[in-house]
Structures are given as structure tokens and as C-alpha cells.
User: Which sequence fits this backbone?
């Protein structure tokens, strides 16, 4: 009740301090901010629902992680902490394993990969990774809706991530939107890339269509996200109903400038 | 060194009866008359062992008792004790470690002792074998022994060679052992019978045969006892033969001798508490916990009191042990006093050192990277937790290798960033059906995992040739294409081969990587 009397007006409310159910789903308070890249979200457990037929989920998770590391980096000292990438067997079979030459150059030599045989083992590895103070972040990839990943397990991951302040991006491949404790949940798909600068017939910078459908502290929304190496660019996406056949051309017209920024 | 106790069962029976060898051989002692040890089988009693007089009368071990009685009506029988014989052989194997660092059982009546490099301690091989035979004879065991470079040849020489045979290491084993019968190969009886029917009676006969012929005839490669070829290889040392060594486990024991015999309970409790402390320290050093404890109390008047304790789980907590013993000491009669107290753990189990603080600290401050990797590796296995390292190869699947997470990365030249590489790579490239404009041109659409992808943009080909220095000359080259389909999904496809390259038919297409 006290929270109602004093709605958070300035800055980010601590999501842990909020009563559960108070700010939920479609932003119960009118002052819930809109998400944008680089915003401090205080959210350590993010779920990304993606298809197993492409690497959009893992790609966006890495882009979010780099965005997070850019905010974290205060001094000039380079961050050399490793990060953990956990895959269960089904995810490994469906969408392949990380490939060193294709990883972003800053993260390439910091990867520790865990190939878990079962979802239970993968959850164990995720939780152990979140408890480790020497890891920069943790990325998990789980296929489908395994029985082991119920609300309790999801809540355990959330609590471990918040307690030790190690962020977790959990990619759910071909999964239903089941019950989960993640503070932000995204639906990710690949989007047509902007036209490449040197070869108009070649695929350009990776672009994802990201749909934030549930968040504790933000308004839901849709964006086209793109990581061009220096920062994570976002532009509001068209609604699904809007027929936009020449999507790629439109993106080409805007150039590298972020629509959201302008 | 192989030791064969030729008459183990009879020798043991003699020892149990307290007789010396051949006692009353001329007179009327129990060993002078024909005697046999029998065992019960499904077909009635059978003779397990017979003494010299009985063998002279015509009875021999696999014979039935009824048959033996017809040959020798005065035969005296006693039950055999195979379990006791085996236990005796085990203790004998431990005792035989006086000649070498470890020994192995060779049931039912043999021992193998590893005497590699110890012969000079006894003054040479001949002295060593003489010492062994002498000591065994003094224990009342009739035995044969042999020294050889391999366990198989020592076994063969002990049973079928001359007495106290020694195979010198420089001798050619094939010619040295050629005169031994095929039974010296430690084969099953039916295999020996088969070899004898084939006319192969000596090891030299087997040596003259072509190896393939033996391999074709004896196809059982799992059991060495059924395959003469495996046994021959073991005999000549061409094939390893693992042996299971016998290890003596002494029971941890602590004791207190008391200057004054004690008669009162509080003093005894103090002594038991001290003993429990000592035992805990001893067990901790061994990494063991006690399951069963025996407390022996020696009284001044020569009596011994024993109290036994058995725990549900291995423990070495002194307070716990004292509490359990306290109730068992209530009915003790100290008499004139107790002068020696001894605590012995007759059954122990491994019990690791526990550290209670580690988890609590990890709960508060998080674990270190090494601890985290240890936990992951212990549960998931070393093959599951790895980090990729670059490898100098231009083939995409060979360009990364995996090594343990905390190992140092290999020093490597900085890689060149000419080409786009996918974020993820499939362990095995999956075949896709591709429709293309021209056989050598860009693909138009492809079907993968039951779905058709219309290709909107493509870049390629990036031609990657096989590594001719390590692959066959018929391996085809690959043309890689970066693909983006109409909904923006990005893939890495390759065409395996070219039309008319003379290395197979029409080229196939595969998907190998997924771009972010």
C-alpha cells in the first residue's frame, strides 16, 4: 500500500524491492519507462524466446550482454572475465555450438562452453555459473519446455542472479511461453538486414526483431535491434499487421542512424 | 615368480590335524593310510584331493568316491574345505610379499609374485628361488616355483618345467619354452583337448603354424583361456596381462597401557575418550571412518573383556563413539583392575574430510572461477566443460579446438579477419536440397528440416580447398555462400564439389553454420 502512495517517479525502482504483482505485465503504473538500449535495467534474468532454426536468440543475447558490459565498464581497464555459455543436448543438436571465429572479437577468448547432457544438468551449470563471482555473465540455451525448468527452477535462477549480480540471458529455443520468473521476456526473430555498404546483394549487419512482451519495469514494445560493434541500435518495429514488403529498403533509407535516437 | 602349491588341500589338512609330512609313513599314522578329501557335487561325492598313499592305490582327484572305493576299499575320507583353502591362499599371498612388492592370487593353488629387480636382495635369482622353496617347505607346503620374465611363462615353468626353473631374460622364449606341453598355456580343458586332437602337443608345434590359421580356428577373443593365440602372446610378453594384486589392509588400532590398574568407571571413561581421540586422529590420516569398533579390556587376573560397536554410517567423531560405548560399559566387572585398553576398528570405510565453512562462504561471496569449474567438471564430466581455442587450419570445422577451461591457450599468430564466419556451427553439416539458377551459380531457394527458405540475398562463393597434405586426393573442395532468406534468417551453406571435377557425381549442398 505504501508503494501505491508513493509511486516511483524518478529513476529506476529497485525491482526486488517492489511487491510482486505491483508492476507486472503491461506496466501497472503509468510512469513505467520505455526500454531503450543502454538503459540500466537492474534486471539480471532475461528470457529470450527464439526459433531453433536460426541463431537469432543467441545473437541477440550476446548483443544484450555486450550492451550490458559497455554500461558496466567504468575504468579503462579491459574486462577479461570469462563468460559461461551453457547448452543442453537438444539445443546443441538443433542450433549448433558456438564457433570461435564467428564470435564478437571482444568476447572471443573469454568463452567457457558447457555442453550439458540433460536440462537438469544445464540448470545446475547455470546456477553454478551465476554463483561464481569471476564470471562476467551467463548465457543459457535450452530447447523446448523441459519438465525440470518449472517456475521454481526459474525462480532459483532469478534469485541467484540477483544475489550475486551476475546477469543471465536464457535463450529458449522453440519453447512455449510458460510460467517463469524472468524479469524481462523477449520474443526474438531474425529480421532482414540493412543493405551492406560494399555489396548490395550480400547480407548486412545482423538485425533482430525483438518483442518485449513482458517486463516488470518497462512498457512492452517491439524494436528492430542491431549490434554494429560500437553500440546496440534500436528502431521501433512496425506492428505485425502492417504489410511492409519493402522492409529492407526502408531500413536502408535510414542509414546507420537509429530511429529511436532521432 | 610363480609358486605352485602342489598339494595345498592335503597340506592344509595335515596342518589342521597337527601332523608333519608323511607322519607314520612307515607305521600307522593317519597320513600313512590312503586318504582323500571329498566334495559334494550334483553327481554325488567326488574326490577333491588325495594323499600319496591314496594316489599310489590308484585314486586321483576328479574321480567319484564310489569308483575310488572299488579301487581302494580302505580309503579314509574327510570333507574338503575350498573356502578355507582360498582364505589360506590369500594369507599366503600376503606372506609371499616378502619376496616382492606385490603378489597376486592364482586360484585354486598358485601364487604370482612380482620379483622384478629384487633378486639381488637375496643374492641372485637362484638364491631367491631356493629361499622361497625352503621357506615354503618349512611351512609344510610342497611347492614348485619358477622365475620368468612374464607371468604366463613363470606359470608354465612352475607347473610343467624342471624344478626351480629360471628363464633367463636373454634366452629366446620361443626356443626355451618349446618343449612344454600345450597345457602350460592355461587353457580351458576343452581347448586343450581340441589342440591334442589336432596333433598339437607342444608349444613348439604351435609356433610352427601360421598365425592366421590359429586366429581363424579360435575366434573367441574375449576370454584368453579359450584362445591359444592370446595365451601365446601373453606368454611371450607381446600382450599385457593385468593381474589383481593382493593388498593387506591392517585394521587401525590404538591402545593405552596403564601404570596403575583402574577399577573405577570415571577413570575408564577418561581412557576411552582418549582412545577415541587417538582413533579419530589415526582414521583422519587414513581418510577412513569406522563402521565397527572393538574395545578390548585386559584385566590383571588374565581375563579379557570385549565390547563391540557397529555404526550405521562411517564415523570418526570421538564424542559420538564415547557416547555409544558408555552404555556398553555399564555391566563391566573390573575385578582387580584393568591394565590395558585397546580400541580396534575392524571395519572401516572411506570417509572424506568434511569442510563445513566452504559452502557458507560461497553462499555469501560467490565462488571463485576455479571452484565453479571444479563443481561443473565433477558433475558433468571433463568433456562437457571446455573452452574453444583457435587452431591453424582454414577448414571451418578444424579452425577451433576445445581444451580444459582453465588451461593456457596455445600461442598462435593473430588470425586474419577477411571473412565473415557464423556465430554457431553445426556439429555435422546437414544436407539441404537447393534450387539454383546455374549449377555453379548462386542458390535460389533451399529446403532444410522440412521448410523451404526463399533466398533474398547471397554472397559467395568463398572457395575452401581441402587440406591436401592430410586428406585423400579425392576429397572435394567446398564453395561457401552466406545466405539471407526472405524473413532475415542468415545461414552458411556450402556446395560440396564442382560439376566435372571428377571426384563424384553431382555436387551436394550442406548447411554448416548459423549467423546471428
Assistant:
Amino acid at each position: 500500500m505504501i508503494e501505491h502512495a508513493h509511486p516511483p517517479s524518478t529513476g529506476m525502482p529497485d525491482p526486488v524491492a517492489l511487491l510482486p504483482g505491483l508492476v507486472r505485465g503491461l506496466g501497472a503504473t503509468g510512469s513505467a519507462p520505455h526500454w531503450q538500449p543502454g538503459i540500466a535495467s537492474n534486471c539480471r534474468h532475461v528470457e529470450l524466446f527464439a526459433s531453433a532454426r536460426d541463431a537469432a536468440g543467441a545473437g541477440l543475447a550476446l548483443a544484450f550482454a555486450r550492451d550490458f558490459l559497455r554500461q558496466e565498464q567504468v575504468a579503462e581497464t579491459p574486462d577479461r572475465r570469462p563468460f559461461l555459455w551453457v547448452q543442453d543436448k537438444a539445443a546443441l543438436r538443433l542450433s549448433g555450438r558456438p564457433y570461435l571465429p564467428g564470435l564478437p572479437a571482444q568476447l572471443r577468448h573469454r568463452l567457457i562452453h558447457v555442453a550439458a547432457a540433460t536440462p537438469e544438468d544445464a540448470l545446475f551449470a547455470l546456477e553454478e555459473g551465476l554463483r561464481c563471482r569471476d564470471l562476467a555473465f551467463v548465457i543459457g540455451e535450452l530447447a523446448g519446455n523441459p519438465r525440470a525448468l518449472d517456475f521454481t527452477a526459474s525462480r532459483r535462477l532469478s534469485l541467484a542472479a540477483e544475489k550475486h549480480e551476475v546477469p543471465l540471458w536464457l535463450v529458449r529455443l522453440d519453447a512455449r511461453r510458460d510460467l517463469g520468473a524472468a524479469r524481462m521476456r523477449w520474443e526474438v526473430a531474425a529480421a532482414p538486414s540493412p543493405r551492406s555498404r560494399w555489396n548490395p546483394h550480400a547480407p548486412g549487419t545482423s538485425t533482430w526483431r525483438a518483442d518485449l512482451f513482458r517486463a516488470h519495469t518497462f512498457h512492452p514494445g517491439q524494436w528492430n535491434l542491431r549490434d554494429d560493434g560500437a553500440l546496440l541500435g534500436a528502431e521501433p518495429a512496425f506492428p505485425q499487421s502492417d504489410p511492409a514488403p519493402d522492409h529492407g529498403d526502408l531500413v536502408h533509407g535510414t542509414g546507420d542512424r537509429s530511429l529511436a535516437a532521432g | 615368480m610363480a609358486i605352485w602349491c602342489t598339494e595345498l588341500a592335503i597340506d592344509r589338512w595335515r596342518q589342521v590335524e597337527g601332523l608333519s609330512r608323511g607322519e607314520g609313513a612307515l607305521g600307522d599314522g593317519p597320513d600313512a593310510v590312503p586318504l582323500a578329501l571329498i566334495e559334494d557335487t550334483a553327481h554325488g561325492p567326488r574326490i577333491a584331493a588325495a594323499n600319496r598313499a591314496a594316489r599310489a592305490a590308484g585314486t586321483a582327484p576328479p574321480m567319484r568316491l564310489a569308483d575310488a572305493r572299488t579301487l581302494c576299499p580302505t580309503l579314509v575320507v574327510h570333507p574338503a574345505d575350498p573356502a578355507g583353502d582360498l582364505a589360506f591362499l590369500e594369507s599366503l599371498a600376503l606372506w609371499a610379499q616378502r619376496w616382492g612388492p606385490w603378489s597376486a592370487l592364482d586360484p585354486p593353488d598358485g601364487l604370482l609374485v612380482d620379483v622384478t629387480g629384487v633378486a639381488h636382495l637375496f643374492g641372485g635369482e637362484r638364491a631367491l628361488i631356493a629361499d622361497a622353496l625352503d621357506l615354503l617347505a618349512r611351512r609344510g607346503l610342497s611347492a614348485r616355483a619358477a622365475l620368468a620374465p612374464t607371468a604366463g611363462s613363470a606359470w608354465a615353468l612352475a607347473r610343467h618345467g624342471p624344478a626351480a626353473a629360471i628363464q633367463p631374460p636373454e634366452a629366446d622364449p620361443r626356443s626355451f619354452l618349446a618343449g612344454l606341453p600345450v597345457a602350460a598355456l592355461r587353457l580351458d580343458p576343452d581347448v586343450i583337448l581340441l589342440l591334442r586332437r589336432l596333433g598339437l602337443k607342444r608349444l613348439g608345434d604351435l609356433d610352427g603354424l601360421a598365425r592366421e590359421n590359429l586366429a581363424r580356428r579360435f575366434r573367441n577373443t574375449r576370454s584368453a583361456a579359450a584362445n591359444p593365440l592370446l595365451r601365446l602372446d601373453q606368454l611371450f610378453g607381446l600382450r599385457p596381462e593385468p593381474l589383481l594384486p593382493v593388498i593387506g589392509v591392517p585394521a587401525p588400532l590404538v591402545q593405552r597401557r596403564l601404570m596403575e590398574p583402574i577399577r573405577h568407571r570415571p577413570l575408564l571413561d577418561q581412557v576411552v575418550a582418549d582412545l577415541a581421540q587417538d582413533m579419530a586422529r589415526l582414521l583422519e590420516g587414513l581418510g577412513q571412518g569406522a563402521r565397527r569398533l572393538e574395545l578390548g579390556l585386559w584385566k590383571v587376573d588374565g581375563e579379557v573383556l570385549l565390547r563391540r560397536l557397529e555404526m550405521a554410517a562411517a564415523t570418526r567423531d570421538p564424542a559420538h563413539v564415547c557416547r555409544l560405548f558408555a552404555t556398553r560399559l555399564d555391566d563391566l566387572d573390573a575385578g582387580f583392575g584393568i591394565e590395558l585398553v585397546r580400541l580396534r576398528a575392524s571395519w572401516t570405510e572411506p570417509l572424506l574430510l568434511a569442510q563445513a565453512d566452504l559452502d557458507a562462504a560461497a553462499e555469501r561471496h560467490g565462488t571463485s572461477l576455479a571452484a565453479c569449474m571444479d563443481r561443473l567438471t565433477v558433475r558433468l564430466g571433463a568433456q562437457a566443460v571446455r573452452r574453444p581455442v583457435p587452431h591453424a587450419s582454414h577448414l571451418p570445422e578444424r579452425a577451433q579446438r576445445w581444451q580444459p577451461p582453465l588451461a593456457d591457450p596455445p600461442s598462435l599468430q593473430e588470425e586474419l579477419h577477411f571473412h565473415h564466419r557464423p556465430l554457431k556451427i553445426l556439429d555435422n553439416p546437414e544436407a539441404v536440397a537447393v534450387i539454383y539458377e546455374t549449377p555453379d551459380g548462386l542458390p535460389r531457394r533451399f529446403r532444410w528440416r522440412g521448410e523451404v527458405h526463399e533466398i533474398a540475398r547471397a554472397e559467395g562463393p568463398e572457395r575452401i580447398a581441402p587440406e591436401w597434405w592430410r586428406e585423400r586426393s579425392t576429397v572435394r573442395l567446398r564453395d561457401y555462400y552466406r545466405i539471407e532468406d526472405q524473413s532475415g534468417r542468415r545461414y552458411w551453406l556450402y556446395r560440396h564439389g564442382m560439376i566435372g571435377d571428377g571426384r563424384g557425381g553431382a555436387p551436394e549442398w550442406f548447411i554448416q553454420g548459423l549467423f546471428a
